[in-house]
Design goal:
2 domains; globular; 6-stranded parallel sheet; NAD(P)-bd_dom_sf; Gfo/Idh/MocA family protein; 15 strands; 13 helices; about 375 residues; Gfo/Idh/MocA_Oxidoreductase; alpha/beta; GFO_IDH_MocA-like_dom; 9-stranded mixed sheet; Dihydrodipicolinate Reductase, domain 2; Rossmann fold
Length: about 375
């Protein structure tokens, strides 16, 4: 296969961006095979911008047309597992957008079916995994350079959205249409990176506000406390009402510390000796020297790395990685099966809030779906989920 013919399902903001990247020749080994959208306005738009590309208003017809080798699912979150399964069923490669779904039971169905089709590529658009900054942070952790993790803190409140953002679509910021708020829309990338780099917590306790500063029924403010099960803890904070938001990710280890500021700068402090050894061997005179302007070189070395903005380039990198996996058989940087981890963590944060108590991970998936359906039913706009 010289070029992968990608079917773009949903010509909204993301689908439109991907179409543009591919049409401009920015994605190696990939061309637009077809476009699918059920909005007549999108059909007109596609006809104007991509007149030679087949257009479908039914994705099943597109899958069975012979026009595509792979698809990307740029549709509301609940549809990702369903479309993913229908795609793989026809031996067509599937790249699902984040999140992989709204609740783990539906994502597990997708993963289970994908496992029966190992020859068909199944990926997820975790574009932040291609970010050199976070790849470097993961490398440092994996290499044990700051030792065993003791604490993680991520404050990511740079997701400011005005009320008009939520008013632009009826399905947005609803339980039945979108499946949640900031946890399923804006923050899935950070939730994925957190577990990809630091591992999954064993327990979660959260304080979540619903419609706190916006006229919506889903969450716009989240504070979650994570328990990794080995003594290490973490805090994850996100919201959509902080117009001067903060993006700061700290990872404390027993041999050093990593601080990421604004997803652009990484500061790595590597201890000369493990903290436990310092605690056991230093006398109070040594300690006083540290706190009275002593030489920090005796305690740690410091490295600062600066990274530029790579918006767009990350999405292109995932598309190229996906095409390479199909054409050359290279391993996927973001296998689709990984998508369930972020969904599970987001579900745990929601469930803890709904129950008002700490929840173990994994949790009772039937209980989560029952609680989610209560909220969908109360909303009264969409059918409950199975």
């Amino acid at each position: 296969m010289a070029n992968v013919r990608l079917g773009i399902i949903g010509l909204g903001a993301q689908g439109g961006a991907y179409a543009g990247f591919i049409a401009e020749g920015k994605v190696k080994n990939m061309v637009i095979g077809a476009i699918c959208d059920n909005d007549p306005a999108k059909k007109q738009l596609a006809g104007e911008k991509y007149p030679d590309v087949p257009f479908y208003d039914n994705y099943i017809e597109m899958l069975e047309s012979g026009d595509v080798d792979a698809v990307v699912t740029c549709v509301p979150h609940y549809l990702h597992p369903e479309i993913g399964i229908e795609t793989l069923k026809r031996d067509i490669h599937a790249l699902v957008e984040k999140p992989a779904g709204v609740y783990t039971k539906q994502v597990q169905e997708l993963n289970d079916f994908a496992a029966t089709k190992p020859e068909v590529k199944f990926g997820i658009m975790f574009n932040q995994r291609t970010n050199p900054l976070y790849q470097k942070v993961k490398e440092i952790i994996d290499n044990g350079e700051i030792g065993n993790i003791r604490r993680t803190n991520w404050v990511i409140t740079t997701w400011w959205r005005p009320q008009g953002y939520y008013n632009q679509s009826e399905w947005r910021a609803t339980w039945g249409g979108e499946g949640g708020g900031v946890l399923v829309n804006q923050a899935p990338h950070q939730i994925d990176l957190l577990q990809w780099i630091c591992g999954m917590p064993k327990k979660v306790y959260s304080n979540v506000k619903y419609g706190y500063q916006r006229e919506i029924v889903v969450e716009d403010e989240v504070t979650a406390v994570l328990d990794y099960g080995n003594g290490a803890t973490g805090v994850f904070v996100t919201c959509t009402h902080d117009i001067v938001g903060t993006d700061r990710f700290e990872i404390l280890g027993d041999k050093g510390k990593i601080v990421v500021d604004d997803s652009k700068k990484v500061t790595i402090k590597r201890l000369v000796k493990p903290e436990s050894e310092m605690s056991a061997t230093m006398n109070m005179q040594d300690v006083m020297k540290i706190f009275m302007g002593g030489n920090a070189d005796d305690i740690y070395t410091e490295e600062v790395l600066e990274f530029g903005s790579v918006w767009g380039g990350q999405h292109i990198a995932v598309l190229e990685d996906f095409a390479s996996a199909i054409v050359e058989g290279t391993p996927l940087l973001a296998p689709g099966s990984d998508g369930i981890n972020g969904v599970r963590l987001a579900n745990a944060i929601h469930l803890s809030s709904w129950l008002g108590k700490e929840v173990e991970v994994p949790f009772d998936e039937d209980l989560f779906l029952e609680e989610l359906n209560k909220r969908i039913a109360k909303e009264g706009k969409y059918p409950v989920r199975g």
